[in-house]
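Minutes, methods subgroup
Present: GH (chair), OT, SY

1. OT presented the first of two proteins processed in the latest run. Sequence and structure tokens recorded below as shown on screen.
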Amino acid sequence: MNQEPTTTLNRAKPYQLVLFPLNNGATNVYFVLILSYVAQFGDNILKLGIFASLMVTIMRVADAITDPIIGAMMDRTSTKIGKFRPFMILGSAVMAVSVVCLYILTPFIPETMMWLRYVAFVVIYFVWVIGYTFQTSCTRAGQTVLTNDPNQRPMFTIFNTVGSLLGMGVMQFMIPLVKGMYDVKDAAGNVIVSGYSDPTVFRIITPIGIAISVLLTALAIIGIAEKDNPKYYGIGGAQEKVKMSEYVEIIKNNKPMQRLMVAGAGCKLALAIATNTTVLLALYGILMGNYNSLYLPMMVLGYVCAVPFFILSMRTSQKLGQKASLVRYVSVALVCYVGVLALLLLSSHGNPARMLSFPFQGGGAINLYTILFIVCFGIGYGAYYATADMPIPMVADCSDYETYRSGKYIPGIMGTLFSLVDKLVSSLAQTLVAIIFLICTGVNELPNDATPYTGGIKVAVIVMFCVIPMLAWAATLIAMKGYSLTGEKMKAIQKVNAARKEAVANGMSLEQAMQAINDDTVQNV
């Protein structure tokens, strides 16, 4: 029996492709605001010491454990405004309230009531991670209704990155500027008390971050509004009632998802550690001696170098599939970071010829070391950053594969199963940072740009800025070797799913459609 579906693909309109990925930008505001700075805040403002870093890890693990529960809730949700929008709205509201309580209200708890600071920090942070999961889950799950066109899905990565730049990038650019306004310096201009020790910095960046996130969330809701509709839900459009016991079966039989979990976790770990605020403070402020003149130029360099790789990765994904693109450009990053590693090993604190130098904001003339670092870091970071979020649209492929394999439309649980492992691994980031600095320096405090240079700090920076990301990328490449969802395979899967959906719409049961329609019964186009 040969069957050809009338409509094979669900395509998104241009404005939908542009707007919905802004949901990731909205949550990435908090990725910077909370996950990158909460340890500094807990240590410098609340005086919680290493407890803050450990609690970030513990809460991240708790967040990962709650992910499948929230994913199951999402798969069973059906309201007048759809499946995904309620979680986007609720998540945004919970995070906004939580961050105000954390960054603005907790510093008013007196030091004579330190126990209350500990309790408030834990409770507020836990509430925040629930809101964070609500909204981040929608980015992965919502792609399944936005588009299943293999030529459009790679575009999600680009617009997702644009959204991230509007969220994460703006915050990364703005926060150091605000911090610099509150640095305490000596007569020579050296920082003696970091601005991150002043509660005013956090009172300023909090409302700005919330405003940016709420705006991006509103635009993302507009982007998915038309597609957040039962007619785009899987083959039959029905709400799936998946038992908790079935999750193990799903993980066991969905081999591509297993490998994507490893790849995604590796990518997230590399990003979380290499861009950690404390690591960058140590690299640019202590090892290279001038955080204020180096951080922003190097950040801009990375973003600029990523632009051509975005275009290349999209074209590679459209032609050969997302797997081929991820493997190709992560490999480029890995090779280039060999050069970054060598340059950091050769760096010499106090020797201008072997340190980064830019001719502004107190820096010196550009030297050969800086030129070589720009080439290796720029190409390596550009290639990696262009693929850092690629596992997100690949989750949609795995979700479509699950529909193809079992007939179940469960984007919520598929997205949160991925994020479970992602978060369990990336939750190690802040604790690894604290532990590695402790081991290398012997000091039970996180360094800042006012901390004096030691050889131990250099070792810690090299391990976290280069070695760990390189190992994570190697794990990604190994995992992708057996990943079966190539570009051609996804085209075949979409044809089968479309044919089954059409058969169900014409009166066939889902079970009958699953048995009668497969790769062999659907003609290749």
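2. SY then presented the second protein from the same run.
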Amino acid sequence: MIKITLPDGAIKEVETNSSPFDVAKSISEGLARNVISAKFNDTTVEATTPLTQDGSLTLYTWNNDEGKKAFWHSTSHVVAQALEELYPGVKLTIGPAIENGFYYDVDLGDQTISEKDFPEIEKKALEIARGKHDFKMREVSKDEALNFYKEQNNPYKVELIENLTDGEITFCDHSSFTDLCRGGHIPNTGIIKAIKIVSVAGAYWRGDEKNKQLTRVYGISFPKQKELTEYLELLEEAKKRDHRKLGKELELFTFSQKVGQGLPLWLPKGAALRERLEDFLKNAQKKAGYEMVVTPHIGQKELYVTSGHYAKYGEDSFQPINTPKEGEEFLLKPMNCPHHCEIYNSSPYSYKDLPKRFAEFGTVYRYEQSGELHGLTRVRGFTQDDAHIFCTQDQLNDEFKNVIDLTLYVLGSLGFENFTAQVSVRDLEKPEKYIGEASNWEKAEQAIIDAAEEKGLNYVIETGEAAFYGPKLDFMVKDALGRNWQLGTIQVDYNLPERFDLNYKGSDNELHRPVMIHRAPFGSMERFVALLLEHTGGNFPLWLIPKQAIILPVSEKHEKYAEKVLNSLENHEIRALIDNRNETVGKKIREAELKKIPFMLIVGENEEAAETISVRKHGGEDLGSISISKFSDLVSKEINSTLKSF
């Protein structure tokens, strides 16, 4: 017998070689029917994997993220088999699960896949799935694996296998199909009831644009057809909310091939929106004791060598700028923190001067691969709402909690109420990914966990998600469509103070190292605006939207009164404009609706006589004819209901 410890601490005694499915069955038949994957001693296993020793077991169903991951990864195998049958000679590469579904990268040779081919691929994949084929893992030797794929003339799988160690290579079989795979599958293909090919795109092998471009087939699957239908409806809504579409319609930003890929151009309305967001955060930061600083867009290469950014991100940065002076090299700034360290270093500090809180809306540049660029969410030049706090060890806990409060204020004021806090720590098995002493990492990780617990945050710990110089607290926000986004991050860093030899004089008259906190509630202005656009569908909070009202005169003879109304609104600090085009009021209303302007103020003969405005809300609600002062009160009340106090 072996002892199996469940997540709630309960211990089950089962026979050696029992599977996770058997353990589930011993708990309840209902659970057993729904189990599709499992984790044993921190290793993902199949529900049918024999358990041979004592250990901890977590059972996954479709309702768990890990269960969905196994479900979608398994479907990628089924779709890969369908592609092999439909496109003779296709070469398979990798097919992982992603946040929503899966993809499989394939080399089609001279063949192509377009949207018209999707139904045929779906039909073939479902036909395979209905065969209820078991997923079976088996170990193979390195030579056997290499020979298998050399016979298939698949250089991609051969390259993957050559980088693996003999004894750690496994194949997954189902039906007549075999694939190189680490594992993590559902019991059989029959559980898959609905499959949708979502899109195709180009993707370079191993993400390197020097390699061949492959075809990436994106898909998603579900255990019920109803769930696929609901997902497709959500997808349609997401298309309507696509920030690239809305950004163009609302005249917020654009891109130019002449300027360069991934370098957004902010139009007047977008620039006004950004400025309002910046002012909002600047006001909160001022109350919290931050000091604004400004740093240049470039720095000497040596600056980023010292910080460690060049070693970690040099390949993803723009190439060094060589000056006329021999040996002098500059880089476009990839991060603001090294510059802020040098600002700290420009003056001596004692413990009485700390904490120092330096904030900047600093623009940084990173050379993202062209295939990975996406609207405002993945760009090559972006502005971070960056700040760095230099404090003593004793001040760390309070400072970190204060940053949590500021981040919650920002998210709450912009309608992001549904979130999970993620404590991102290092992967102890991959120490080469990080810099600094292990003892400092332990202190930093514990400081974040302590602060998260004291603030009562609902948090999870994610291994391997830390920055290279320190652990962090990320806010994973769920938007109006139920999608998860990382917004706002706070990091504790003991390493950059060491690298830049930062110090302060303590009460003992000795020099000590400060602790550094990195924080960015928005993350980047570009990505934040993109997510805010999609979350709100372009219906921004009233305090933020560029134009809060549009005045619609019924005819030319009412334009003078419209001007009077505009002046009065400006005196009440309401942002408005007049549409005095020679068009019908009905057409003006329809166009104002498309521009998502919150209030339409219609002025005609009756309104002018009574010195009122006829108010129509975006969406069609008629508020009747009211005075400007009453309208101002209405606007103030709505703003105060969304804009939190800090």
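Chair's summary of item 2: The two ends are 59 Å apart (CA to CA).
Next meeting: continue with the remaining queue.
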